[in-house]
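Below is how a single chain appears once it has passed through the pipeline. First comes the sequence as given, then the structure the pipeline wrote out for it. We keep one example in the README because the format questions we get most often are answered faster by looking than by reading.
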Amino acid sequence: MANQHFTTVLPVLLLVCLAGLAFGAGCLKESSVAVTDITVGADKVTGAEVILNVTTELQNVRGISAGISRVHLRAYDTASGLVVAEQASDAGFLGVGGTGTVTQLITLPRTGSYRLVSTVFENGQRKGQGEKTVYSLERLVPDVQEIGLSITDTDFLVKKVAGDRATIQADIYFTNDNRVPSGAFDVEVKAKEEDARLLADKQRAHIESIQPDATRVSSVSLSVPDQYNYLVEIIVWKNETIVKRGEGVVRLRPGTIMKDDTQLMTKKIETSKFVSEEGYRAGPYAIPTTRSPGFGAPLALVALGGLAALVCIRRRKQ
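Resulting structure:
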């Protein structure tokens, strides 16, 4: 009887000892969950919004979980501090020293910077928190950019000088690098004074669809005050969304030089000397003709002279 009683009591004593050891080691203490990492990617980008894919990694670093862990993701505008969007998802039961991962989609305006805060809860109690900041979402290119449209070159021609104004023609080369037609789009060209960034002129042109691996030239004329330097901005619109940007510089009064290390002298450009000869077909789809200004007549005389010499040589042989 004594042996049977001892056999029955022994497992109980062992369980009590194990429980005491576990409690002393902290296994039965209240859990503490750490956010070990936050990974952010752009799932979708439109003209107005960005859908971010936010993955939060968790680990129970102490104690045992009392229930299902839940992650609350909030996006705060860094400028105003206001909550712009939020999501909540379950991370499962972490147990003792367990890990978990939660992936959430959150939609934000495609402008500004945001602080993403992931907070972990168990049974309504806050257990841990982590955060990451994303900056300048307006720099993300909309998905429509995948049409493969690129600006391969830009030429600037002086078409006219009248009084204190100059007419500059911007020839913009668009190439479709995709395997499908680009679809129709619009191009907006702005001329801004280089230092003050004051807008001197802006024009807009419509471009029909460009075939794969083809290049099209669009010509836009800008009327600007002479003897200033300009930053020319090129903005491509498609379906009311900016899908491409480019820029160039036109300097009608370029640079300064030092004279005797005491005076600044500004270089002056006689813009009228750069007025181009007619060799471009007007319109938004202009394609330049092939010509070599200044060398047409001399080359013709050389050709005629060579032909006359050849005729003389043949006559002498006869």
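The CA atoms of residues 5 and 11 lie 11 Å apart.

See the next section for the split statistics.
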